Amino acid sequence: MSAISKKISLVVAALAAVLLPFVLEDFRVFQLNLVLIYAIAILGLNILTGYGGQISLGHGAFFAVGAYTSAILISQVGMSTYLTIPIAAVVCLVMGVLMGFPALRLAGHYLALATFALAIATPQLLKYKGIEHWTGGVQGIILDKPTPPFGFTLFGNELSEDRWLYLVILAIALGLFWLAHNLLSGRVGRAIVAIRDQPTAAAALGINLTFVKTATFGLSAAYTGIAGALSALAVAYIAPDSFPAFLSISLLVGVVVGGLGSISGAIFGALFIQFVPNVADQISKSAPWAVYGGMLLALAYVAPDGVMGILKKIKNRRQAQ
Amino acid sequence: MKKINHIKALVAVVALASASFGLNAQPYDPGATDKEIKIGNTNPYSGAFSAYGSYGKAQAAYFKKINDEGGINGRKINFISTDDGFSPPKTLENARKLVEQEKVLFFFATLGTAPNTAIHKYMNQKKVPQLFVQTGASKWGDPKNYPWTMGWQPNYISEGKVFAQAILDNQPKGKIALLYQNDDSGKDLLLGLEQGLGARKDMLVARETYEGTDPTVDSQIVKLKASGADIFIHGSGPKFAAQSMKKIAELGWKPTQYVWQVSSSIGAVLTPAGIDNTVGLITSAFSKDPSDPQWKNDKAILEYEAWFKKYLPGADPTDSFYIQGYMNAQTIEQVLKQAGNNLTRENIMKQAASINDFRLPLLLPGVNVQTSATDFYPIERMQLARFDGKAWVLFGKTYGD
Amino acid sequence: MDSFVLQVTAGLANGGIYAAVGLALVMIHQATHHINFAQGEMATFSTFIAWAMIQAGVPYWIAFVVTMVVSFVAGLLIQRIFLKPVEKAPILTNVIVFVGLLVIFNAFAGWIFEHTIKSFPSPFPVEGMFLPKYFSGHQIGSISVTLVVLLSVFCFFRFTPLGLAMRAAAFNPESARLVGIRVSWMLALGWGMAALIGAVAGMMIAPIVFLDPNMMAGILLYGFAAALLGGIDNPWGAVVGGVILGVLENILGAYVIGSDLKLTMALVLIVTILIFRPYGLFGKPIFSRV
Q1: Nearest-CB residue to C260 (from A129, A299, A300)
Q2: Which fold has domain B156-285?
Q3: What is the pTM of this model?
């Protein structure tokens, strides 16, 4: 593909993305918002697990912290909605870095185990009486959806709260994806991957393992935290039950489906975890998760590099011809 | 001759015109047609709270029975129930899909406080009835601020107050210990208890909570016993109530025990706990327990059991969620019958707020369903009952209005 | 004082539960060096099978043995069918498979057996045979069963050639193959035995906590904590770890931190052990070479 046609297709894609909410009904836009949010969260997890090789089964905790940070700041402190997002990012960044330190000493399954424990304990932690005053305890926190700053109509659909939020989330998502792409295809990315594949050798080559690994954890947490904060706005309500252990598992599934170590794969992963449960629900009321789990297994065997891996194979085959 | 032809033509044109303008006398909102009423619902069919999915299953089975018998006013019920796994974001997504895409007429018996909270504002903004919410939390009866939302069962604050009243009447010098679920339902019970005790709040000497993931509550029971209380209130879910009753007996502790209606099923709770351990237990009841031998030949119970056999084969009859789901479905049936052919959302809400002394056959004799424009609590009455080893024997007055 | 003793004995009884689950986890880890996240759900499913048999009228101990056998075979098959293809794959892929199995077992249990809580019978007398004031018959019985399982596992790994072969296969598959050990089958055997132990654990636990598809959700975490505390390669450690955990949880819950942070306590314990002493109280440190 020549450089110019690539640029044109990018512009077209961007335009399509911006116009998309106006040809869809409100509730579809809401679902798209969730897809974008999950994509950001999955990208965050991918940075840690796909690139960094550190398995986390507990990323739901960062999602929750991001959501609660934003919600508490809005409802208790009265802060402007949009300002809470970078703050949530910073809070999660710090939390991720702090967690990165003990994670340094845990390999493979042990880290998976520790983070699994975190995922299971998260709802209980959120209900804790001691912080109930801030978190609203079991009742959770109800928010108002941010209102669009101006109104207009396009293709017969007005700029509703959902569509406005879509544009905000889209902008943030594009920025985060661009940032991840730049970081990970440069020296930072190579350092992270080197540590994943040959840690002792990487250390011997002068890479500061502690710094890179904890920073990776922090960055990963920040991304997922931003996604969490955005989810609080999109749903306008959070409660401890919004962050069950299954959320962490879903995020991991999203990473696997999209493809480990793939940035753009996050979108596929997000589409999967958003829509597949709905589809599975229609196949069988009692066992949507069985279908979910079955797909998990199928992907693990058939397509370990996820959707992006499949696409790459197709592309390679085409180029070889 | 020509004049008559003109008049005939005029009449024909007018008739055609009025027909083409759909001079249909039926006022319908989306979800209602001549043949069908679409109802939306979510339940946790998967995840940690999947035990509550029994409510939705019972309701679906009840609507099936109604449809088999011809529907309501000639219309079949299309009950669209989706799984939200008790996750509020999913509940909202499902609700939006059902309202905006499936275009249901109204929402019925959505389960769980957090899930319902997630859609509370949305439903009222969209002016879609959120009826007979399947939770005992007290906040659903607020017609001034949320005119489109209504609860159904007696809420737990009322139950707490009833217990407090009974204790003040019978054991004014007693000391109370409470084990309650660490969620809004349990907290509502505690709140009602405290409100009912009023100045004598100090009678509540010990309280403990537990999590659904705790394997046992033995530790909590031991701690509560150490408080020296002589009255024990079970505000815990069925499994933990059974464990508690067993442990209390094992410890040789003999307090007066109250159990809230959630965990009062003879088959599901008292039997696993050990019948000998549960004689003397007091509960507040508003409906008949099918595992209670005193209702063995009761017409409503027999009807229920026949329905159960036919429409829920293989299901566990001791699960009290089924009968509650069934009763809730009967209540909405009444509302739809009252609405007749006027199936606008506004009328549905109006009918729901005008249930006048409706005696559901499975309700206890003194209890009714009653609503008004200012009273959004359909079932408020309950009566105390004591377990005599075989059945829940009703005693005392009927509380509530 | 009496209350304190009661807390401790209640903790011992709970500890027996955690120990039983911990033993299954130790078994899998010794045989495969993997942590089986699906262990809890597999145990629950086995318990449901036993329940179904008992409901159909099968006498308890026959149902018990049949369940053990069925679980053994199932565990073996699961390893052959689901884990063999990813034996050489990165750890993450294996973790994905475990999680997939967890989800599937949980979903099938709910689908086939419904979500209502069921009571599961106990084969032991109601009154404790020993210190009846503090222990019920079932608690004594299940602790005894756990000890029997523990002894069997320990003797198996220590004294039998097969046990040695299994440990070798997990430790160094290449070398083990060179001495003629069929590594793949050792792994399958390990899975079978772990599934068997898990089934026993489930059947001992169900009478206490009642049977439903989510029975093991919280207990699994405590089982992990118990196994880690004692040393994930040490069956004795799992039992001691379970007991310590049970008592600690009750004492802390009753006197220090309150009962609503128990899972958090397990979490903190797991993380602390993994960081400061990953081989547990009784394990040996493992060093890796570049």
Answers
A1: A129
A2: Rossmann fold (3.40.50)
A3: 0.87
